[in-house]
Amino acid sequence: MSGLSVSGISYSYGSRVALDDVSFEVPPATFCALLGPNGAGKSTLFNLLTRLFSTSSGRIEIAGYNLNNDPRQALSHLGIVFQKPTLDLELSVRQNLRYFAALHGLSGAKADKRINLCLDQLNMLERAGEKARSLNGGHRRRAEIARALLPEPDVLLLDEPTVGLDTASRRGITDYVHDLAKEGTTVLWATHLTDEIRSDDHIVVLHQAKVRAVGSAESICGEVSLQDRFLQMTGATPL
Ligand SMILES: Nc1ncnc2c1ncn2[C@@H]1O[C@H](COP(=O)(O)OP(=O)(O)OP(=O)(O)O)[C@@H](O)[C@H]1O
Description:
The chain is α/β, with parallel strands linked by helices. The chain contains eight helices and ten strands. Belongs to the ABC transporter superfamily.
């Protein structure tokens, strides 16, 4: 299966428990929001999914490959957009993508063809020659998403990808990634912003290291808005 499966994952920083027996599935071609307030454990989970961290507990499967037993296969099916920007600001957009393509064994005309396609899909082709430093935040994010899509990942992880972006950029990127899921990519999108979630999206609510709810946004909300439901579940009160 080309989805994502997380089963019984726990992780602690010393005595601080960041993830406590976390389990959920993201079916193939689904947009799943990992919804949690600050400190819920979202970034820790992403670090485990990308193998920056490891844990002996539980099991992670990416596109059907066990991350512990078969990390090369599992990671070759994974695309990632980290919370903190990771473009080399002194390189052009194209150079950033070429470097990344080479890491995935793509070079020459084949790499350029794929780079052009991915940049074009994100309306970034005409910016390809510009240094990353000269781009605004929204365009930098688009370039990072294009880069993550180069190896045609089955599963795409995005860790709070719209933080710091203006409304139009947020909307554009959120819509684009929803379309990607409709076209077949399995998406896990970490956020604390309920307005990025649609009623038919899958949601995993994470709070204080534990999964608090799993299901469609509609089924989790009931009669109330997602924002109110989220505030109820996380015990947060508006200032
Ligand atoms: N390096 C670390 N050392 C100790 N504790 C940490 C470390 N990194 C994170 N934590 C703690 O682990 C818990 C989960 O943090 P994490 O960054 O995964 O949450 P998050 O949901 O990504 O939050 P945010 O939305 O603020 O990025 C928090 O209590 C945090 O304080």
